[in-house]
Amino acid sequence: MNTFLGFGREHVERHYRKTGQCVYMHLKRHVIEKVPGASGGALPKMRNAMQFLDLETNGDLNNDDFEYEDEAKLVIFPDHYEIPLPNIEELPALVTIACDAVLSSKSPYRKQDPDSWEEELQVSKHAKTLVQIDNGVRIPPSGWKCSKCDLRENLWLNLTDGSVLCGKWFFDGSGGNGHALEHYKEMGYPLAVKLGTITPDGADVYSFDEEEAVLDPHIAKHLAHFGIDMLQMHVTENGLRDNNIKPRVSEWEVIQESGVKLKPMYGPGYTGMKNLGNSCYLSAVLQTIFSIPEFQRAYVGNLPRIFDYSPLDPTQDFNTQMAKLGHGLLSGQYSKPPMKSELIEQVMKEEHKPQHNGISPLMFKAFVSKGHPEFSSNRQQDAQEFFLHLINLVERNRIGSENPSDVFRFLVEERTQCCQSRKVRYTERVDYLMQLPVAMEAATNKDELIAYELKRREAEAARRPPPELVRAKIPFSACLQAFSEPENVEDFWSSALQAKSAGVKTSRFASFPEYLVVQIKKFTFGLDWIPQKLDVSVDMPDLLDINHLRATGLQPGEEELPDIAPPIIIPDDPKAPDIDESSVMQLAEMGFPLEACRKAVYYTGNMGAEVAFNWIIAHMEEPDFAEPLAIPGYGGVVSAGAAGLGAIGLDNQPPEEMVALITSMGFQRNVAIQALKATNNNLEHALDWIFSHPEPEEESESASDVMDVENNANANILAEAGSEGPRIKDGSGRYELFGFISHMGTSTMSGHYVSHLKKEGRWVIYNDLKVCASERPPRDLGYIYFYRRIPS
């Protein structure tokens, strides 16, 4: 009752011994079966009317048969003296006021920014009583068009009369003409479902009457009225399922192994994670991370020590939150099979369904995403980006001498050659994953793809069901070949010619990591700058040998490029910076403010509209997003939000983002600052400088600058990183597959993630709270693959 921190039964004693705080409020919720009435139905009964806590209810229980009773009392340590609440007679007034405030307060997670934690959707009041007109309307699975205009995007199906109409217009020029809303105002039909969002797991439903997105528990029946089968997404002209027609196998069905009876798995290491609303990317990454022994030892193995040395506010300590989450996943306490008596009761009530206990990573997500413009939102994210974000946090908060992220770190040797002088430069950089391009030109079923595309267009024009999906089959060897081929270096400056020239670059492994992470680069941008996904099948091998990609270094007969940095060009007119206006206009045409576009192009060094677009996405929620560009060092002021990578001040103090990026690679903070100062804050040149200056010049740098330990009270058990450079675990380049993360959907901004892990000799699928034995692991449709080294 002093810090207002909450603890479970097994941790409250530790907190008392550590802090001496002796007064705690004990909150408990009881689940009570309702008393049946004379007619056989359950009578609502609230003993003492005690449901006052803002807690989540158990979604697995039928609210028609169960109710909740909350209990609160003060507990005085060390004697465990209990005082029931409320108790005005025995308690001082201030204590009573404090207790009442706690009991009546809302959950802190509900008080977060609405963009960060959206409330769960509510069931529409119209869902149960919705009237559907039997007008013979049947909806094909594709080829839709608004019935009042020619729009073919952002279309909504009215669930009363089957009208297909466009949605509202948005500021960026997308959306529609609002015909769906006009139809509601004219006819009063309240519910509509967005076409293109229907999957076997549900669909996006909007209530015009309630003016919000809602849940429709009867959506399958409502869609079937218009001939749409949610499970197969295939309809015939009469709207009935034709058993002679092979159902279209969608990406959602294959990856989630729909239609196959999967056996639930229980026990340590088989614990699911609740989806908080587009948090499946986080769950998929963490399930995979905590299947690795090094992470298990670092956090779960050190759990007592981490908890004992945790700060007074453990909610703000990364290692405490990692240990807590890892314990929840690996202890087995939250993954227990139902008792036989429960199963018998469920069968008798004809309500048998697998029980998924699982954990809710609310506190963990709130902490690791704090301050991040994307992960702190409730939008879907890229699992690869979150993986790197998590590794960065692990690096900055490492415990003791063992850093679990060392198992992913490897060195990449980059060989850059000047095409005119033929001289070369060898550099090394740190990386944590191998990104493989998708070699679409190497598809082995090109004829089938061409035929499918023709049939698809014909079906769309005739408003017929689409043909069975044909995916491009890409050989893994072709992706590996594309990775190893030389690539052109844009804007290459040759130190041999002292001028810009054509250059090519090849990449090889200077070291092989203990665990190799392979990302298939399925996501790209279309011509309209809309993120798109390549729906391809890649025959990923169970056993992988990349020893032939081992770096060789400078070869006999090769001549190195002189170690001369390009000249620093200061514009004659400092108030008129060099900005690529064509890139600015490209971004402005997409609907972004002109000044924001100019800042994006400037702060990304005129590297093109695609890079500037990424800058805009990362900064568009900042208050000074659309303010005019102010150049540092010339009387202007650069705000903290706008000072992205590449912003340079008069004092040449490196931007903190650059320093954090280099330290996340395993280098010391003082070395990172020194390298950036020596290269005028050029990130690429700073890395080259580090590898060419192995001995730091300023060894007197204080120990507090060697390691970033902000917000971390575990400093007394942190060990300083070595000064010999990034730590690597080199070895053989032979690996075996043990896990992969798959994505369903059209882009990283939408869809769903699941992970498959190989445990105890068999594959297991982790789909939010559901953890089951996998029957058909879709290895060819994965997005991120995890390999472990095969011992020599």
UniProtKB/TrEMBL annotation:
Source organism: Gopherus agassizii
Active site positions: 280, 752
Protein name: Ubiquitin carboxyl-terminal hydrolase
PROSITE patterns xrefs: UBA (PS50030), USP_1 (PS00972), USP_2 (PS00973), USP_3 (PS50235), ZF_UBP (PS50271)
Compartments (UniProt record): Cytoplasm
Lineage: Eukaryota, Metazoa, Chordata, Craniata, Vertebrata
Principal location listed in the UniProt entry: cytoplasm
Stored Gene3D superfamilies: Cysteine proteinases (3.90.70.10), DNA helicase RuvA subunit, C-terminal domain (1.10.8.10), Zinc/RING finger domain, C3HC4 (zinc finger) (3.30.40.10)
PANTHER family named among the record's database cross-references: UBIQUITIN CARBOXYL-TERMINAL HYDROLASE, UBIQUITIN CARBOXYL-TERMINAL HYDROLASE 13
SMART domains: UBA, ZnF_UBP
One GO CC term, this protein: cytoplasm
Residues of the UBP-type domain: 122-230
Enzyme Commission no: 3.4.19.12
Superkingdom of the source species: Eukaryota
MF term (GO), any: zinc ion binding
Keyword DNA-binding set for record: no
Catalytic reactions of this protein: Thiol-dependent hydrolysis of ester, thioester, amide, peptide and isopeptide bonds formed by the C-terminal Gly of ubiquitin (a 76-residue protein attached to proteins as an intracellular targeting signal)
Signal peptide: none
